[in-house]
C-alpha cells in the first residue's frame, strides 16, 4: 500500500469530488470532504517521512517506466509543499461547514465541496508530478475549480473578479504551455528529470531562452508577482471566506513551487542564475512588490482586501529569497511558503468569523469587536504579529533567514528594507487592532463570539503559528534540506 | 535571415499572427464575450504550434495503417496531438466557465461591457 | 421549428444514427481516430439536435438535467475506478496489464474502460452546458 502513496495523494480527493455531487445534503458532502482532506494530509505526512528516510520516490503511472510514461516523483521539496497544501486543506475543510452555510445558498453547497476537493487535488497534482505537461493539466483543474469557488461569493463583484482571474489565469497557463511546448521541441521529452539531463546540451539555443521567458511570465502571473498581481486583490476580497483562507494559503504557494521546480530543477541553478540572470530580474520586482503593496495595504478599508494586498507583498518576500541565489535565501523562501500559509490562513479565517457574525469586514464595522468577539480578535492579533515578524511567531523565523540571506550576500540595504517593510505591516495590522479594541461597539447588543466550529480550526492554525515560531528546528531543517536539493539540481 | 527561412517556417508566422490577434482582442476589447473569443484565438495559436511541430516531413498522420504493425510506414509524432487534445478540452472548459460567468454578470449588472461594469462598481463603492 | 414536418422527421431519423456513430467512434477508438471525448461530444450533439427541433422541455423529460449531471460525476468515478481496480489487482495505477492474462487484452479492456468514463463525463458535461445556456430566457434584473 505504501508504494502507492504518491498516486493516492491525488486520487483520494479527486475520487471524493464526484461523490460529493451525488450527495444532496450539504452536511454529508461536508463530511466526505473532511474525510478526504484529512486522508490527503495523512498521505502527505507519510510521504514526507518516507522521503526523509529513503530519498526520492518515483511512481510510474500505468506501469510505463519514465521517461516514456508519466512519473510522479517525490523529493524533499515537493513533499514539503504537499504537507503545506494538504495541511491547509485539512484545516479549512472543517471550518468551511458553518462559514459556507452562511455565505453560499443551500442548493450549491455539495457543488462547493466538489469544487473544493477538485481544487485541492489539482494543487496536489501540480506539486507531485514529475511530468511537465501533467503540470499544465493539474494547473487547469485547480484554476477552473478556483474560478467557480470565487464566483460563489455573495457580492456580485465576486463574478467580475472571478472573470478577471479567469482571463489572466488562462493567459498565464497558456504562456506556460507555450514554454513547455518549446522545451519539448528542443529535447523531445516531457519528463522533468530527463529534461534536466538533456537541456544543458541546448543551452545556447534561442528557443530555450524564449521558452524560459514565456515560463517566467506565466508563473509570475500565476503567483501574482508585482506587476502581474491585478487579479488577486478582488478575487480574495469577494470569494467566500473559507475559499479565501484556502486559496491565499495554497494557490500562490504552489505557483512559487512550480517556478522553483522549473527554474532550479529542470533548467538548473547555473542556467537560471548565470545565463538568464533570473535573480537580477526578480530582485527589483520583489522589492517593489514588498514596498508598494505594503503601502497600498495601509490605505484599505476592507480588511479582506487589506490582507490580500499584504499577500502580494508577502509573495515579494518569497521571491526575494529566491533572488539571493543562495541556499540560505532559498531556505527563507521555502520556510516562508509554510509560515505564510499558517499566518494568512489564520488571519483570513478570523475574518471569516467576523463575516459570520456581523456580515461585513469593513474596518468601521469592526469597531469595538475586541470585547464582543474576544477569541476571534485575539486570533487576528496573533496572526498579525506573526505577519509583522515578532519573535516567538513563525513570521520571525522566515524574516530571520531572509535577513541572514541578505547579509550573506552583503546586501545590507535589502536587509534594512525588509525590516522597514515589517513596520509597514505593523501599521496596517494596527489599524484593525485600533478599530477593534479602542473604539466603541456601535452595533447590535446581541453580537456574540463566533461558534466553536469556526474558532476551533482558526485557533488550531494560531497554535501552529506559535508552536513553529518557538520550535523552528524541524521546519528549518526540512526547508534547508529542500533548498540544498533545489540548488544541487538532479545529479546525472 | 534569408527569404527561404521566412517561407519554410511559415507555420510559425501563422502561429505568431494568430497569437498576436488573440492577445490584442483580449487586451483591447471591453466586451466580455469578445474577450473570451480573443482568449480562444490565443489558445488556438498554441494548438497550431504544437500540431505543426509534431509533423514529420513525408510521414502519414499518426493513424495505424492496415495491416497493423507490418510494412514500413513513417508516422508523424502522435504525442503533440494527444497533448493538444487535452489542451482543447481544457480550452472548452475555460470557455464554458467564462461564458457562464458572463451570463451571470449580465444578470447581475445588466451589461457585459467592461467600462459600464466598472462605472457601476465605482458607484456602489462610493455609496458604501 | 415544431411545425416543420421535414425537420421533425429528419431529426427523428438522424438521431439514432448519430448516437450509433458516437458509440462506433468510442468502441473503435483504440485502433482508429476517435475515443471517449469525440464520442461524448457526438452523443451530446444528438441530444442538442433533438432539443432544437422538439423543444427543450420535451427532451428534458427523457434526458433529465439530474441524469446528465449524474453522468458528469459518474464518468470521473469510472475513470478513477479503473485505476483503483488495477491497483487492487497488484499493478500500478492505470496499469492495464492487470486486467487480463494477455497484456494485449488487458490494454484493450483498460483503454475502453477509461474511455467509457471519458465518454460519460463529456456527454454529461456537454449536455449540462447546453441545458444551462439554452434554458435561460432573458432573465435580466
Describe this structure in words.
The complex is a heterotrimer of chains A (492), B (128) and C (141). Chain A is built from 20 helices and 2 strands. Chain A is an all-alpha fold. Chain A has a domain at 277-492. In chain A, helix 8 packs antiparallel against helix 10. Chain A is globular and about 70 Å long. With 128 residues, chain B is mainly α. Chain B has one domain (3-127): Helix Hairpins, CATH 1.10.287.3510. Chain B is 72% helix and 0% strand. The N and C termini of chain B lie far apart (60 Å). Chain C is mainly α. In chain C, helix 2 (36-54) crosses helix 3 (56-62), helix 2 runs parallel beside helix 5 (103-134) and helix 4 (65-88) runs antiparallel to helix 5. Chains in contact: A-B, A-C, B-C. Chain A binds chain B through residues 133, 136-137, 140, 144, 147-148, 151, 156-157, 159-160, 162-163, 166-167, 170-171, 173-174, 177-178, 181, 184-185, 190, 362, and chain B through 23, 26, 32, 35, 39, 42-43, 46, 49-50, 53, 79-80, 83, 86-87, 90, 93-94, 97-98, 101-102, 104-105, 108-109, 117, 121, 128.
Question: Which characteristics define this entry?
Answer:
heterotrimer, A: 492 residues, mainly alpha, two-stranded antiparallel sheet, 77% helix, B: mainly alpha, 5 helices
Q: What are the SSEs and their pairings?
A:
The complex is a heterotrimer of chains A (492), B (128) and C (141).
Chain A: H1 5-22, H2 26-54, E1 57-60, E2 71-74, H3 76-103, H4 109-128, H5 132-151, H6 157-187, H7 192-198, H8 206-222, H9 232-238, H10 241-266, H11 269-275, H12 278-298, H13 303-323, H14 327-358, H15 369-372, H16 374-388, H17 394-408, H18 412-438, H19 452-470, H20 473-488
Antiparallel strand pairs in A: 1-2
Helix pairs in contact in A: 1-2, 1-4, 2-3, 2-4, 3-4, 3-10, 3-14, 3-19, 3-20, 4-5, 4-10, 5-6, 5-10, 6-8, 6-9, 8-10, 9-10, 9-13, 10-13, 10-14, 12-13, 12-18, 13-14, 13-18, 14-16, 14-17, 14-19, 14-20, 16-18, 16-19, 17-18, 17-19
Chain B: H1 3-8, H2 10-28, H3 32-53, H4 79-109, H5 114-127
Chain C: H1 5-27, H2 36-54, H3 56-62, H4 65-88, H5 103-134
Helix pairs in contact in C: 1-2, 2-3, 2-5, 4-5
Amino acid at each position: 500500500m505504501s508504494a502507492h502513496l504518491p498516486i493516492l495523494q491525488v486520487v483520494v480527493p479527486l475520487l471524493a469530488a464526484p461523490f460529493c455531487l451525488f450527495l444532496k445534503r450539504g452536511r454529508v458532502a461536508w463530511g466526505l470532504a473532511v474525510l478526504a482532506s484529512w486522508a490527503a494530509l495523512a498521505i502527505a505526512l507519510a510521504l514526507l517521512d518516507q522521503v526523509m528516510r529513503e530519498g526520492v520516490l518515483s511512481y510510474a503511472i500505468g506501469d510505463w517506466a519514465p521517461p516514456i510514461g508519466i512519473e510522479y516523483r517525490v523529493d524533499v521539496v515537493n513533499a514539503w509543499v504537499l504537507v503545506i497544501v494538504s495541511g491547509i486543506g485539512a484545516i479549512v475543510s472543517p471550518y468551511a461547514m458553518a462559514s459556507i452555510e452562511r455565505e453560499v445558498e443551500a442548493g450549491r453547497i455539495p457543488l462547493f465541496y466538489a469544487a473544493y476537493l477538485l481544487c485541492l487535488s489539482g494543487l496536489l497534482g501540480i506539486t507531485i508530478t514529475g511530468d511537465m505537461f501533467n503540470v499544465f493539466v493539474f494547473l487547469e483543474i485547480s484554476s477552473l475549480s478556483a474560478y467557480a469557488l470565487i464566483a460563489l461569493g455573495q457580492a456580485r463583484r465576486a463574478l467580475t473578479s472571478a472573470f478577471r482571474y479567469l482571463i489572466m489565469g488562462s493567459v498565464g497557463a497558456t504562456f506556460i504551455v507555450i514554454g513547455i511546448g518549446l522545451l519539448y521541441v528542443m529535447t523531445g521529452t516531457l519528463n522533468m528529470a530527463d529534461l534536466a539531463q538533456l537541456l544543458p546540451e541546448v543551452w545556447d539555443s534561442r528557443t530555450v531562452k524564449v521558452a524560459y521567458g514565456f515560463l517566467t511570465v506565466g508563473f509570475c502571473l500565476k503567483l501574482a508577482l508585482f506587476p502581474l498581481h491585478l487579479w488577486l486583490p478582488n478575487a480574495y476580497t469577494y470569494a467566500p471566506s473559507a475559499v479565501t483562507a484556502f486559496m491565499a494559503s495554497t494557490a500562490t504557494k504552489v505557483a512559487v513551487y512550480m517556478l522553483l521546480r522549473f527554474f532550479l530543477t529542470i533548467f538548473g541553478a547555473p542556467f537560471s542564475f548565470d545565463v538568464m540572470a533570473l535573480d537580477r530580474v526578480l530582485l527589483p520586482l520583489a522589492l517593489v512588490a514588498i514596498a508598494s503593496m505594503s503601502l497600498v495595504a495601509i490605505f484599505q478599508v476592507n480588511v479582506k482586501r487589506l490582507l490580500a494586498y499584504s499577500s502580494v507583498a508577502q509573495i515579494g518576500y518569497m521571491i526575494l529569497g529566491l533572488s539571493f541565489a543562495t541556499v540560505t535565501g532559498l531556505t527563507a523562501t521555502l520556510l516562508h511558503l509554510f509560515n505564510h500559509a499558517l499566518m494568512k490562513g489564520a488571519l483570513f479565517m478570523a475574518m471569516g468569523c467576523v463575516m459570520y457574525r456581523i456580515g461585513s469586514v469593513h474596518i468601521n464595522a469592526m469597531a469595538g469587536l475586541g470585547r464582543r468577539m474576544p477569541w476571534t480578535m485575539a486570533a487576528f492579533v496573533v496572526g498579525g504579529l506573526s505577519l509583522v515578524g515578532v519573535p516567538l511567531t513563525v513570521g520571525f523565523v522566515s524574516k530571520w533567514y531572509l535577513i541572514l540571506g541578505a547579509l550573506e550576500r552583503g546586501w545590507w540595504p535589502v536587509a534594512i528594507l525588509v525590516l522597514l517593510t515589517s513596520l509597514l505591516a505593523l501599521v496596517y495590522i494596527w489599524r484593525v487592532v485600533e478599530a477593534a479594541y479602542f473604539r466603541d461597539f456601535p452595533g447590535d447588543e446581541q453580537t456574540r463570539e463566533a461558534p466553536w466550529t469556526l474558532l476551533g480550526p482558526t485557533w488550531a492554525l494560531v497554535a501552529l503559528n506559535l508552536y513553529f515560531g518557538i520550535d523552528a528546528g524541524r521546519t528549518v531543517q526540512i526547508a534547508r534540506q529542500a533548498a540544498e536539493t533545489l540548488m544541487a539540481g538532479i545529479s546525472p | 535571415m534569408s527569404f527561404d527561412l521566412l517561407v519554410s517556417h511559415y507555420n510559425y508566422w501563422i502561429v505568431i499572427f494568430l497569437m498576436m490577434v488573440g492577445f490584442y482582442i483580449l487586451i483591447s476589447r471591453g466586451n466580455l464575450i469578445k474577450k473570451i473569443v480573443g482568449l480562444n484565438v490565443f489558445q488556438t495559436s498554441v494548438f497550431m504550434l504544437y500540431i505543426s511541430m509534431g509533423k514529420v516531413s513525408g510521414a502519414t498522420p499518426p493513424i495505424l495503417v492496415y495491416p497493423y504493425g507490418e510494412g514500413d510506414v513513417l508516422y508523424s509524432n502522435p504525442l503533440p496531438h494527444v497533448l493538444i487534445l487535452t489542451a482543447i478540452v481544457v480550452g472548452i472548459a475555460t470557455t464554458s466557465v467564462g461564458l457562464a460567468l458572463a451570463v451571470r454578470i449580465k444578470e447581475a449588472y445588466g451589461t457585459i461591457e467592461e467600462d459600464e461594469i466598472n462605472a457601476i462598481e465605482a458607484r456602489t463603492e462610493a455609496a458604501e | 421549428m415544431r411545425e416543420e414536418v421535414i425537420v421533425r422527421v429528419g431529426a427523428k431519423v438522424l438521431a439514432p444514427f448519430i448516437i450509433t456513430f458516437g458509440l462506433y467512434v468510442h468502441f473503435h477508438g483504440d485502433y482508429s481516430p476517435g475515443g471517449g471525448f469525440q464520442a461524448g461530444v457526438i452523443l451530446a450533439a444528438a441530444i442538442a439536435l433533438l432539443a432544437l427541433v422538439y423543444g427543450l422541455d420535451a427532451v428534458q423529460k427523457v434526458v433529465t438535467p439530474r441524469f446528465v449531471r449524474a453522468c458528469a460525476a459518474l464518468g470521473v468515478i469510472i475513470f478513477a475506478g479503473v485505476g483503483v481496480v488495477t491497483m487492487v489487482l497488484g499493478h500500478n495505477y492505470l496499469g492495464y496489464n492487470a486486467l487480463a492474462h494477455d497484456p494485449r487484452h488487458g490494454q484493450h479492456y483498460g483503454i475502453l474502460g477509461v474511455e467509457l468514463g471519458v465518454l460519460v463525463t463529456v456527454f454529461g458535461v456537454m449536455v449540462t452546458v447546453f441545458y444551462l445556456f439554452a434554458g435561460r430566457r432573458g432573465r435580466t434584473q
